[in-house]
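Please check this record.
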Amino acid sequence: MIPIAERSLFKIPASFKGIFGVFILLGVGMFVTGLVSEEENNVLRTWQAFLINTVFWAGIAHSGIFFSVIWQLTDAKWGRPFKRLAESCAGFLPYSFLMFFIVFFGSNVLYEWTHSPFLHHGVAVKSGWLNLPFFVSRNIFWLVLIYSVSWWFVKTSIKPDIALARKLLGSKWGGSFADKILIGYGDHEDEVIRLEKLSRKIAPALAILYAVGVSFLAWDFVMSLDQEWFSTLFGVFFLIGNMHAFLGLMLLTSVTVRKKFKFEEYITINRLHDLAKMLFAFSLLWAYMGYSQYLVIWYADLPEETPYLVIRSMTKPWDVMFLLIILAVFVIPFLGLLPKTFCRIPNYIRVMGVWVAIGQWFAVYFLVVPSLQHFGHYHIYLGLHELLISLGFLGVFILAYLNFLGKVPILPISDKHLCKTWLGH
């Protein structure tokens, strides 16, 4: 385990900081410029781009912790080399919380129900749920609860690894960050056993919390953009999309870390193959969830449900994007990852992972933007607002992710399930 600990600590290269710092500045500049614009359409595009990126990048961060929970619950040996790479998404959680909080200030622009509630026979039948004070308070509750338990789980996971690294390489390993994490840490052997038991208690609770909490966030921040429409499957569909996007970025990260830090003996071709097949499986699951939602609404043909899908699948220009998203997120990953040979080519699956993540960004765009446009006046806006704000979020996510990963052992060195190979994997 000494070589792993020796290779783990790293500082973000100055060139990376410079590039992604410029991305952040461009994003902030575009956000401020859009808000002070006198054109109502520019203000709307600014807020919708901010919302799209908030839920997209937060969804990836949530899914990273969620997959770590899954690997913990299932004792998955094949996934152990990816566990810390997934947990490093925790570095983005504080920024994610801030982004959601900022969205609250754009509620009057984004959410029609804040100023013009849905009326049924003259009665605002949804105002009990869709009102701003309750909207803000319940989502702050979910975010604080999810993020607090997530950090508790991640801290429990990384603590024995940092302690083992210090035991092997000296008490200065990890610096001040390690000092804070290891406050109150006792005998290493006893702590490993205690923290393992604690992780097994936190993991199932956090899994349930994610399933429920992220569904509520999806209903409130995305589904309520169209206050008349509702779907009981929407939360699950959104969660699967988040996990799909995360797996795409995990392929990119895993292949890069494998080559950069020379972890070929742990992140093996067989394990990358497994991860690629997981991405393949989630392409199927995403398509299945979307089809299940579409089929039920089409068959029932209820007036309060069908406009949402008619606008997106049968009305120009969204009907073209509807087909392109299915092609990008389902058809191409399905065909591209079906052959075993392709799934064992690191650079190929890295590109495929990036492709899926970009496709899922457009899937979120597709869920958000049509709901914010007036009936019959539909436009696909993909310009500087969308590009620069997205680059800003990308910069924050990458720097936060790398900053966290650079302070901890890249592989879970104290985990008994970490091994170089296991039944061919």
Observations:
- The chain has a mean pLDDT of 92.
- The CA atoms of residues 107 and 130 lie 11 Å apart.
- DSSP finds 15 helices and no strands in the chain.
